Amino acid sequence: MEHYKVIEESLLHIENNLQQPLSLESVSKTFNMSKYYFHRLFSAIMGCSLNQYTLSRRLNASVQYIQSGNLSLTEIAYQLNFGTPSSFTRAFKSKYGISPSTLRKNGKTIALEDIPPVIKRPIKNINGDIVADFTLTNFKTTQISGIAFEVDLAESDFKEKIRSYSRMLVNSIDETISSSCFVIYSNCQPNSTRFKALVGIPQNLSINQPNYFTVDVQQFFCAKFKYYGDLLDIGDVFITDFARFLKISQQETEESDIELIQVFEDIHNLDSPYHIHVPIKKLSSDDVG
């Protein structure tokens, strides 16, 4: 079974057994893995430990019990294996900012969280530590033509804005043109939520409309990752993966106007897998042609 399938199955197993102890040893045994390897795999894929994830799902389930009003808070604490009512209350208040009793009294509603998706990406083992698979390489100098725009992450519609510009580019390109597609994210200033983006292709587009530009991206040294799924929906996962990559590989970030470049193989299929190129410092030990 592929690694991401194991984690998908483990999430279902956890969800169906929240009333059980769900120790690392018992869950790993269910999937015929050593607890040490399962711990590393789960943490790398989900960005948290098994215990942290299980606690979050128990708290999520407790919200439903509290809002239904069928069980007392003490019964909920023991039903969901929190250990003691006081442990339940502390964990609940830490996550939601209010106590279980307050939630029941004021009648407010807390939205339940679905089981999170498992983001599919290759992994590699580095001296016993599991990270998202990567390649250290040079991003070659490339001329890219496309649509440039600015995005503010503080605005609720920023994802749709990026997607709409991507669709605009696709609609302006003849279907007979075969090309990869580049999405460049750049100039995100410290303590700012605004950044510039360009969606384009490595061909000269003669489109006389506002926001269409041609830029030369100079060569830079980078770490390249492969992902499946919309980058705008897996942003937090990638941030965790990249931080883990830096720590385990002992690489360093590079100061650059470019934050990252997302590359699709086919401009007409933006649902396909893609690579993410992130600038990093080239160390003396990095032997890349």
UniProtKB/TrEMBL annotation:
Annotated protein name in UniProt: Helix-turn-helix transcriptional regulator
Key word Manganese present: no
Alphabetical UniProt keywords: DNA-binding, Transcription, Transcription regulation
Record flagged with keyword Signal: no
Domain HTH araC/xylS-type, chain residue ranges per copy: 8-106
SMART domains: HTH_ARAC
Single GO MF annotation: sequence-specific DNA binding
